[in-house]
Amino acid sequence: MTRADVRSGDDVEAGIVALWRSYGESRDQGQRDRLVLHYAPLVKYVAGRVGTGLPAHVDVADLIQSGIFGLVDAIEKFEPERGLKFETYAMQRIRGAILDDLRSQDWVPRSVRSRARDVERALERLGAKLQRTPTDRELAAELKIGLAELRELYGQLQLTSVVALDELIAPNKGGASLAESLPDDDAEDPVASLVDQDSRRQLADAIAQLAERDRVVVTLYYFENLTLAEIGKVLGVTESRVCQLHTRAVLRLRTKLNEQSEA
Question: pTM for the complete prediction?
Answer without folding.
Answer: 0.58
